[in-house]
Amino acid sequence: MSLTGTPFLYTTIVLSLVALILPLFLWSRLRGPKAVRAAARVLMLLFAQATAVTLIFVLVNNQNNLYDNWADLLGTGNHVQQAANLGQDGTGGIALKRLPKVRQTFTAADGPGMRAAGGVEVAQLKGRVSGVDAEVYVWLPPQYHEPAYRNHHFPVVELLPGYPGSAKAWFGSLKVTEQLEPLMKSGRVAPFILVAPRTNLLAGVDTGCANIPGTVNADSWLSIDVPKMVTDNFRAAAAPAHWAVAGYSAGAHCAVKLAVAHPDRYRAAVSLSGYNDPIGERNSLASQSVTLREQNNPYLLLRKAAAPPRIALYVSGESGDGYQAGVALEQIAKAPTTVHVVYLPRSAGGHNMALWRPQVPTVFEWLTLNMGQSHVRAGTAPLEPSSAGSTHAALASGTASRAGAVRRR
Questions:
Q1: pLDDT above 70 (res 398)
Q2: What pLDDT band is residue 81 in, cutting at 50, 70 and 90?
Q3: CA distance 195 to 47
Q4: CA 382 → CA 175, 194, 344, distances in Å?
Q5: CA atoms of 205 and 163, how far apart (whole Å)
């Protein structure tokens, strides 16, 4: 029975109701020695508590897409077949253009939000470079199958969850397709192909989207194997000009790091409540040594870059939770690198889906403009970071004044 499936949810609801009703009918009707009756009552109470906790967990997990399956929850999943030393560029010296095309069979994906707005497809990808074997979810924009677009190649955004987190989270918890489909049809947002690869590759740890020889090649999985599969199977536009990566929490850190480290693969990145130093997620493999932290810190990578990369970064967050990381990047950025920082006050919410979900439309309007999709209407992207005292809509879009944000810091 699937951890996130409807049957398991209904089962936990029924068991919770049974656990609540049992004591009402049996408490005073139990027979036998006093010790036996006491033991039976204790078991009924424990059963009620266990089912209640299980139901709450299932509801929270389904709402936030923390664990995708039982293996993720129990820490038994391992999606790494091999982790060779692939060198600084993550290719292992492989001539990527000479690799044969990756042909995948896609099927309809199950789970919350996966059938909305035309539906999400999923395929199991064996990464030829990274050695990762995991699922990749793909959503095609409404224009993809229209005759007028039959020769059109579409821009792509990779979507990364936090840790723990499911690749389904952007579709389920953040409702990205439901929010974007009408905006794409109206022309406010470009018709992006959305790609959500698995990032939870090893049991009980966050890979930090890093390449660690002998352990995991998560960077190459996300920036080489997944993009190649997408371009081989769909009418996806070429990188880097038409590729971006977006994430929240640990996924936000990964998004910025991938764009800064690989400006030849991505043109833009979006960070929602992220961080620069990998130690921001203590379960991250990239935080286990000073060397790994330096190699996977986008602030240090940007500061040490031989030449400023041609990338655009969108960073939003509250004070102490993403905002300062964005300001640090903004302070060292030099043209053609651009950094757009959005301040969200504590009153806007916490480190959760409720804070990130309303930012989705504005983030994709910003991506539309910064990736050169000129058909979008002018003036729809935020021009100034958010500030305290603004409306919730302004906080989500980042259209309030920066002066207020500075006063409240």
A1: no
A2: confident
A3: 41
A4: 21, 22, 13
A5: 9
Q: Which residues fall within 8 angstroms of residue 328, CB to CB, at 6 or more apart?
A: 276, 299
Helix, strand and coil content of the chain, in percent to the nearest 5, comes to 40, 15, 45
Cα 170 to Cα 255: distance, rounded to the nearest angstrom: 14
Q: Tell me phi and psi for residue 269, to 5 degrees.
A: -145, 150
Do residues 41 and 20 lie in contact, with contact meaning Cβ atoms separated by under 8 Å?
Answer: no
Dist CA 270 CA 192 (whole Å): 14
Nearest to 369 by CA among 358, 360, 380, 357: 380
**Dist. CA 185–CA 86, nearest whole Å:** 42
Q: Which residues contact 111 (CB under 8 A, 6 or more apart)?
A: 4, 5, 168, 171, 172
Helix ranges restricted to H, 133-289: 169-172, 176-186, 218-220, 226-233, 250-261
Residue carrying structure tokens 């006063």: 407
Q: What is the pTM of this model?
A: 0.82
Judge whether residue 404 has pLDDT over 60.
Answer: no
Peptide bond into 141 cis (omega under 30): no
From 272, 282, 357, select the one nearest 321 (Cα to Cα). Answer: 272
Backbone phi and psi for residue 270, each to the nearest 5 degrees, phi listed first:
-120, 130
**342 SS3 class:** strand
Q: What is the DSSP letter of 238?
A: P
Judge whether residue 204 has pLDDT over 90: no
What percentage of residues in the chain have a pLDDT greater than 90? 62
Section 309-329 average pLDDT: 97
Give the residue from 263, 282, 259, 262 showing the smallest Cα distance to 271. 259
Q: Does 191 sit behind a cis peptide bond, omega within 30 degrees of 0 on the bond before it?
A: no
Task: Enumerate residues 6+ apart whose C-beta is below 8 A from 196.
Answer: 136, 137, 138, 158, 159, 160, 161, 167, 168, 169, 170, 171
For residue 308, is the peptide bond before it cis, meaning its omega torsion is within 30 degrees of 0?
no
What are the tokens at 361? 């439309």
Amino acid identity of 109?
A: A
Distance CA 162, CA 382 (A): 24
CB atoms within 10 A of CB 24: 9
Tally the residues of the chain.
Answer: 409
